[in-house]
Amino acid sequence: MEKRIRVLVAKPGLDGHDRGAKVVARALRDAGFEVIYTGLRQTPEQIVEAALQEDVNVIALSLLSGAHNHLFPRIAEICRQKDMSDVLIVGGGVIPDADIPGLKAAGIAEVFTPGTTTSAIIEFIKTNVK
């Protein structure tokens, strides 16, 4: 029996809008992934600790507040500190195209912007989970 991909869907920082995160979480679940949703207003430390405790393959971050340049790299940094380099980190939300190269350089595998289909997110995860 093949092990299912485990995904932690997280809302870092003070962003209080989670409709998009819930849509993505439901699509991932419907695609056969195990999905854990952290809820709103999580610190980077809480997110990484939950990912560690849940033994996930993927951390999927959703952020609309504009703090992505601070929060996404911080989560990637904490994952490296905890020897979690095998965990795929992806992000999504209202993120300017100009910010995406810096986020990728910081360790975010892919950034999904508004209009990305859930099937594209699912395919990226399936293709890139180690």
UniProtKB/TrEMBL annotation:
Q: Which Gene3D superfamilies match?
A: Cobalamin-binding domain
Top-level taxonomic group: Bacteria
What Enzyme Commission number(s) appear in the record?
5.4.99.2
Keyword Isomerase, does the record have it?
yes
Q: Which GO molecular function terms does the record list?
A: methylmalonyl-CoA mutase activity
Keyword Metal-binding among UniProt keywords: yes
Keyword terms, alphabetized: Cobalamin, Cobalt, Isomerase, Metal-binding
Which Pfam families does the record cross-reference, listed alphabetically?
Answer: B12-binding (PF02310)
What CDD domains does this protein map onto?
A: MM_CoA_mut_B12_BD
Obligatory cofactor(s) = adenosylcob(III)alamin
Q: Which residues form the B12-binding domain?
A: 4-130
- Protein's UniProt name: Methylmalonyl-CoA mutase
